[in-house]
Every structure is written in structure tokens, then in C-alpha cells.
Amino acid sequence: MRVAIVSGYPLGESRSGSVTHVEKLAQHLSAIDGMEVHVITLGRKSEQLMRGRVAVHVLRGVGSVMPFLFPITLRSMKRTVEGLNPDVVHALRGFRFTAVAALLRNRYPAPITIFSVERMESRFDSNPLRVFRRLLISIPNEKYVIPRASHVIVQSRFTEGIIRRWTKAVTHLVPEGVEYDRIQRVRLPDPPDGEPDIFIAVNFRRLKGLDILIKAVAIAKETVPDIRLDIGGSGEEEDALRDLVGALGLESNVRFLGFIADEEAKYQQYKSCKLVVVPSRWDVEPAATLDGAASGKPVIASKSSNSSLV
Fold first, then answer.
1. Rounded Cα distance, 175 and 179, in Å
2. Helix (H) or strand (E) holding 102
3. In angstroms, what CA-CA distances link 187 with 192, 233, 246, 269?
4. Exposed, middle or buried: residue 111 (CB in 10 Å: 0-12, 13-18, 19+)?
């Protein structure tokens, strides 16, 4: 069987939880006998790569920088899929990609997986370019794709409830997971690099609510002067978050660890802390909630963090 996955894909060191999901999905599928897996994704230049048994077709995504050129990118992805002539087209992670499945739905089985709801998340954007992209591409595509999909995969009943208002498609609830056995094999460094009270690894975007967590640490410091928060990750809000730490006088309490590319190192951080806090303003599938729980740590999550996943 030949499967074409149309999605974002980790081409560099930095990555989000959703592209990690796609990478692992492709790896697991490719390990099945008789399965041929192709990923069609967007990058800075067109190229073809092999990641294990997964063939990655990278197309130059001009529409990401200049949204009015998005139809060119869409046509290029569609032609690449047609050239592969797969048995199934599975589109994930964003409506630049799921639009391809919508266009090909009469030719191939074309399920889509929805990680985020653009109309909801747009309230929390602070990046003007992302706001512009959402208004011009993502939200119109969302309105076009969801009603036309025959099968939609979601990760929580919360998301399922939203999607059911917009489509009569068959919805499949497939909760996000973690490689639990692998996490249990992770051992702490000897000696451990300090033990933070709180740890989270997350993309630095406003909807993730890290500013809320930092302000909470400032309040907690009045009672626990040496409280320590370690934050792994990077993103567009980093400068603002660092400024907030300085303004609140938390330089000795909050550490920015940068993006943690090595998964074992990330889970070492989770296992070394006392508590995981997930303060999202909005989140469909917060990996930190699952990672913290799988690492054996208590997790405090905002209602908007969709803690029903656990």
C-alpha cells in the first residue's frame, strides 16, 4: 500500500509537537511490511530526502511568505500527490495541507487530521504575519475543507464537539499518545543538573500562556523565595518573556533552556522536576500534559489546556 502524507514535517532541529506527531506516524507506518510511505511537505527549497524508509518530498512553500501565491503551492502539492498515485492521501497539520486532500477527495480516500482550530486560535495571535496568513489562507481553507471532508480525525472530544458543528463527516477520536515504555527507560543524569520545582517544554506563543505562569511564579516567590521554573523551547514570544522575567525580578528563579532537540534530554528534565504546569490560554493537544504525566509528575493544567486528554 502506498500512503501519501501531506503535512508539515521536521526538516530542521526546531519542531513543534504536531510535526513530531507526523514524523512518528510516518516512521511507524513505514515499519509495516508492504507499506510505502511518502511525505509531501513545504520548505525553503525543493528537494527529496529519505528519512529511514520514509520518502520526503519537500516543495518550496512560496505561499508561506507571500500568501497571495498560495494557489501555486497548492497546485504543486496536488501534482506531486497525483504523480505518486497513492492508495490513500492523509493530510494533517494546517489547512495549507488539508486543502490538498479536499481537492483530491473524489479520486482517493482522503482523511484529514485536525490539530488546531484556526477560528479559535486566531484570538491569541500576536504575530502580524501569522494573523494575516490566518485571515487570508487558513480560516478560508478551514471553512472550505471541513464541510467537504468525508473522514476527520481529532484528538479529543472537545475538538470533536467543535468539528461536528461544521461537518457531517465521520469523525474518528484518536487521542494523542506518548511512547510510555521508552519514557520509563530514561534515567536522570548523575548527578542531576539541579532540580527545578516546575518544568515545561513548549512553543513560545501567546496562546501557550507562559506569561501567566511566569507571573504566577512571581506570586509564589513571596512564600517560596527560591522557587525555580525551567522552561524549554523557543518561539516568537521569547524576547517578551525574558523582558517579563526581568521586570518581575525573577532572573534567579526562571531559566530559559532553549529548544531541547534530544527527546531523552527533554524527558530527563520532566523527570527531574517536582511539578509540571500547563497554563495554555487555548490548546487542542498539549504534549506537555502527557509528557509530564508519563514522567510520573503531578500536572496542573488550565481548563483551556484540554486536560481531558489525560
1. 13
2. helix 95-104
3. 10, 21, 33, 10
4. buried
Q: Are 285 and 176 in contact (CB under 8 A)?
A: yes
> 2-173 belongs to which CATH class?
alpha beta
E strands within 125-202?
151-154, 170-173, 198-201
Contact 142, 95 (CB under 8 A): yes
Residue type, 83: G
C-alpha to C-alpha distance for 294 and 117, rounded to whole angstroms: 26
Report the C-alpha gap between 152 and 60 in whole angstroms. 27
Q: Which of 221, 237, 159, 76 is nearest to 229 (CA)?
A: 221
Whole-Å CA distances, 252 to 101, 153, 163, 189: 49, 44, 44, 22
Same fold, 2-173 and 191-309: yes
The edge-to-edge listing of strands for the beta sheet with 88-92 is: 47-51, 54-60, 36-43, 2-6, 88-92, 112-113, 151-154, 170-173
The residue type at 229: L
pTM of the model: 0.82
Q: In the CATH scheme, what is the code of domain 191-309? A: 3.40.50.2000
Distance CA 288, CA 275 (A): 11
Contact between residue 6 and residue 92 where contact means Cβ atoms under 8 Å apart: yes
pLDDT tens by residue, 194-248: 789 999 999 998 989 999 999 999 999 999 999 999 999 998 899 999 999 999 9
